[in-house]
């Protein structure tokens, strides 16, 4: 096996183990800790810390530690969150969620930088197009990574299914499920019982072990990048220059237009994890069904991630973005109209599956897009990506306890439309910059000068 592919698989497997734990915990926060809005507050705090981390830490940590050890250090922050859940309270979950958030942005920036760097290096050696290899590597990564949701949620469902957590669902409760839910933001439905503490401890023990194994795998087996990721003609940049590189990249008009894409990614993931799991699945079916519903999301997301990584070589990214937007737009409209009921069990899985089909577009294509457009500033570009995605999470979780689900869906609809318009503007700008100038097609007028736009 080629060494670059081996390293891509090692990174993917490490993230699979880590997010088997974190993904399962994230899906259950709003359902397990609904009292006084603790679950949603923890998620909001987590992504708030990630937002602050995205502003400064990724380029600095990657410069100091390199991509490999940045990944190892950040993964350790995730393990502390699993440990904090053993004694769930405001005093344990909030501090550990802050620590996780601080590690999240460097983790994802280092992952994006690592895959882009090894992809471009392999493409140069093999005589292939860099963007095609990077797309393929991100497709492989997200195929493996997104399957973490399958295993994490399967584990939680199997553990919680050992005892019933759902009594008969009354018509009164069903009337407040779905888009009409304006009351369940801080408390679970009356028919939903909390799993026993022994089952919760069993689940947390499995999750913590999975996270520790991820840290050991990457620390012991992953090859570090041979060259430092950041170089300038003037030598090594100063610490202040490194810290400010994330903000300096915002001078690029393309990046300013693209900030809506990661923001929307944060909005739609937050809706699925915080609202769909609680206001649709838990409300109508019970908490033990949350894992099964999320398995469907993760499975379709994983398979489509690999598919899009290969298909994009032939179709380009524009058709995939259009497909993802149309799919999620249809889901949002349908969720506004649908009245969830236990008698429509298959529909819960259809929605989560289609959501995964669309989310796979955002995860694979957004990362590849940032890696290709900002190849010379990868660390700062991926830090920006995580910054704006974290902002989307923070805003979405922040208003989660104040707005009806229907209002959240309308917000999601508006952000989706705005992000697609902004993305279209970037593609138009890129097409114009690649087009040959007219001066190259005809000789310049006498006494004139030929100018090249840089």
Q: What proportion of the residues form beta strands (DSSP E)?
A: under 5%
Number of H- or I-type helical stretches: 15
Largest sheet: none
Helix and strand sequence: HHHHHHHHHHHHHHH
The stretches of 5 or more residues where confidence is low (pLDDT under 50) are 184-191, 228-234, 438-442, 444-454
Cα-atom radius of gyration: 23 Å
Q: Strand pairing plus helix content: what structural class?
A: mainly alpha
- Number of strand segments: 0
Mean pLDDT figure: 83
Question: Which word captures the global form?
Answer: globular
Distance between the termini: 40 Å
Kindly state the percentage of residues in helix: over 70%
């Amino acid at each position: 096996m080629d060494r670059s592919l081996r390293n891509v698989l090692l990174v993917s497997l490490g993230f699979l183990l880590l997010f088997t734990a974190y993904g399962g915990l994230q899906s259950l926060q709003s359902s397990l800790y609904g009292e006084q809005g603790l679950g949603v507050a923890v998620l909001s705090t987590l992504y708030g810390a990630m937002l602050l981390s995205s502003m400064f830490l990724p380029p600095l940590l990657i410069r100091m530690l390199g991509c490999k050890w940045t990944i190892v250090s950040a993964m350790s922050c995730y393990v502390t969150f699993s440990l904090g859940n053993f004694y769930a309270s405001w005093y344990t979950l909030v501090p550990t969620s802050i620590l996780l958030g601080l590690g999240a942005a460097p983790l994802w920036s280092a992952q994006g930088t690592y895959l882009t760097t090894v992809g471009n290096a392999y493409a140069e050696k093999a005589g292939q197009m860099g963007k095609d290899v990077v797309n393929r590597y991100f497709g492989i990564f997200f195929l493996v990574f997104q399957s973490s949701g399958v295993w994490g949620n399967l584990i939680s469902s199997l553990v919680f299914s050992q005892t019933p957590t759902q009594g008969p669902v009354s018509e009164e409760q069903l009337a407040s499920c779905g888009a009409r839910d304006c009351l369940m933001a801080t408390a679970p439905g009356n028919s939903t019982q909390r799993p026993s503490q022994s089952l919760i401890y069993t689940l947390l023990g499995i999750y913590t072990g999975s996270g520790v194994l991820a840290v050991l795998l990457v620390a012991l087996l992953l090859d570090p990048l041979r060259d430092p990721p950041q170089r300038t003609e003037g030598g090594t940049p100063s610490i202040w220059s490194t810290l400010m590189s994330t903000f300096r990249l915002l001078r690029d008009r393309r990046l300013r237009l693209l900030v809506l894409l990661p923001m929307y990614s944060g909005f739609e993931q937050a809706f699925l994890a915080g609202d769909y799991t609680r206001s649709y699945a838990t409300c109508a079916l019970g908490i033990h069904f949350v894992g099964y519903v999320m398995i469907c999301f993760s499975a379709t997301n994983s398979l489509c991630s690999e598919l899009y990584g290969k298909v994009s070589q032939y179709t380009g990214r524009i058709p995939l973005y259009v497909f993802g937007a149309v799919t999620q737009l249809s889901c949002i409209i349908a969720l506004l109209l649908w009245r969830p009921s236990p008698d429509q069990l298959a529909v819960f899985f259809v929605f989560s599956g289609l959501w995964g089909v669309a989310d796979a577009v955002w995860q694979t294509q957004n990362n590849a897009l940032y890696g290709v457009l900002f190849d010379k500033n990868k660390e700062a570009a991926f830090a920006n990506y995580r910054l704006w995605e974290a902002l989307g999470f923070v805003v979405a979780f922040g208003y989660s306890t104040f707005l009806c689900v229907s209002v959240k869906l309308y917000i999601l609809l508006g952000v989706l439309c705005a992000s697609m318009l902004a993305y279209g503007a970037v593609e138009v700008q890129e097409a114009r910059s690649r087009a040959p100038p007219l001066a190259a097609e005809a000789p310049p007028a006498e006494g004139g000068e030929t100018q090249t736009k840089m």
